[in-house]
Amino acid sequence: xxxxxxxxxxxxxxxxxxxxxxxxxxxxxxxxxxxxxxxxxxxxxxxxxxxxxxxxxxxxxxxxxxxxxxxxxxxxxxxxxxxxxxxxxxxxxxxxxxxxxxxxxxxxxxxxxxxxxxxxxxxxxxxxxxxxxxxxxxxxxxxxxxxxxxxxxxxxxxxxxxxxxxxxxxxxxxxxxxxxxxxxxxxxxxxxxxxxxxxxxxxxxxxxxxxxxxxxxxxxxxxxxxxxxxxxxxxxxxxxxxxxxxxxxxxxxxxxxxxxxxxxxxxxxxxxxxxxxxxxxxxxxxxxxxxxxxxxxxxxxxxxxxxxxxxxxxxxxxxxxxxxxxxxxxxxxxxxxxxxxxxxxxxxxxxxxxxxxxxxxxxxxxxxxxxxxxxxxxxxxxxxxxxxxxxxxxxxxxxxxxxxxxxxxxxxxxxxxxx
Length: 419
What we know:
13 helices; 20 strands; alpha/beta; 38% helix; globular; 419 residues; five-stranded parallel β-sheet
């Protein structure tokens, strides 16, 4: 693979005005490559190129079916290059090779699905009487700024880029600093699909500088962002000043409810997929289980068994979906997980298994999967992608519906950190 990756602005791969950033392999801790970093001037160039394409009318003057075919070609390109893209994604994100292939396939699916919608975007005719003729017609926003998270860089880019192009928008993608490398293939795919230069621009920049500047840019007409509530709030505030539409996905806690008559076979599969997929780094992960008290101990034992038997290590060495897991994205995230586990135990938690760095390997960004039990919930509000199994009574439906994210609720918790 290349040891240096550039930004993509106005149809050309270019260096970044802010220098380079090192991208590491989370599975080994070793340097993977250098990535060009954009400054504000690079953002201006990317936005200007996208605006030029929008104002040219290229994307809207063509028949929708032609635009649909171009969008679907991007998906086809991803599938054709799956065997090249997936290993790179596995190495830059730490995920298993199976998960990487799954993500690239899903990314292609977005272009297939939304490309097929291009011919279905129809307005309305509204009857108001003989003296009136009232109708609606959809138009693109113009320039779409898309800020991508590190946990699913291919899939999240595909989701916003496919919809943006299908509806006739030119796009500026701000790739994540931790996983920017595979964005290269969206640039190549756009070229293969014959989109004109400036339609798709991909820049990697620091969120607090280039990202913030992009989202507050006066020539941006729409923003898509996936990330933290704090950053999403800041983006919404910046967008409001320019009266710009925003689409924000800010994650949250996701609970599963386990009733007394639940199938343990089903539950086993749901715990495996719900929290350990992608090393638990999923905004919609099944971060809690609310369990009927009659089967509480059985569920604790089941979760312990799953965690103990999880094979954790270098993702690219794991090519099949099994009871396995790759690395967390960075040492910072790993150490944060460990510190929260330590703090929970100081406050009364009991670690059933794990809750430490894997085999004390300093350069491997993994935490041994754990299950813990404690009487209070000091960690249940943490954005750490945890599974929390809460002991409640099945016969109290209001308790089941409640979204308890507290620090001292007095209930019993069993916590699995799928890190």
